[in-house]
Amino acid sequence: MLTSALSRRRMRDLSEREILALAISSEEDDARIYRHYAERLRADYPASAALFDGMAEEEDGHRRQLLDLYETRFGRVVPLIRREHVAGFHARRPVWLNSQLSLETIRAQAAQMERDAGAFYARAAAQSSDAPTRRLLGDLAQAESAHEREADRLAETHLSDDAKAAEAQSEKRQFILTWVQPGLAGLMDGSVSTLAPIFATAFATQNTHTTFLVGLAASVGAGISMGFTEAAADDGRISGRGSPLKRGIATGVMTAAGGLGHALPYLIPDFHIATTIAMIVVFFELWAIAWIQNRYMETPFWRAAFQVVLGGALVFAAGVLIGGG
Asked: How far apart are CA 230 and CA 72, in angstroms?
């Protein structure tokens, strides 16, 4: 790494020929990135794909201008120089290699690309002594800086209100499928399934330390099991539910959290106080499940509350009966 860093050229040491070559390769790279984004978005977000197609065409136009100027001044042979060859040059994080990218992440990355390119051209123009070159680089700096406005113009062309609403709905659906639904399943499992072992142990032993250990083991074990099950059961390619890693994390974490919520009160030495607090926590856990179902799954609140409370009450009663017997 040290050798690589020392072998890179500094921006101020580049000749005008090399600066133009760097600009040409950068425009080519950015156009390819935009086209990659367009291809990734075309199936689910066709209007945004058209937007990135337009931005790629803009970058191609800049590259042609730079090539024409380069050939006029230096001939047809363009030296191979890229961003990674220049110390301190703005780098492109290869987020496009990520198989799961949200629409907002892609748009934010595109905005950052335009800001970086504008800063490069402004610096390159200040470094150039040739009037036509300085003029073109200055014009490109202004063009890149104005690309956010250009993107707005393209958005107006390609993103109608209906298209924006459809894309927002599609993104919301993906968020629910990837995070909310697996997390909700985990929270329900962790909150309800651990009621019986935790309260059975509590009423059987009336020992808060033992109850806490059982609750901790049940919660963590269930979290690991549910997380792996969710991740392994569906890779998301056919169902479109998104990254199995993200879904596994959501399910596992929420499962563990659901059980730990009413296990942690048993860190309190007094059995009656700990049990009272644990019951209050269970109430809020079940309320949270009903709220999430109503908020994201559009289940009527009172129906969701009835279903969750009924299921929780049955499991709680089983735990008390087993532990009390």
From this structure: 60
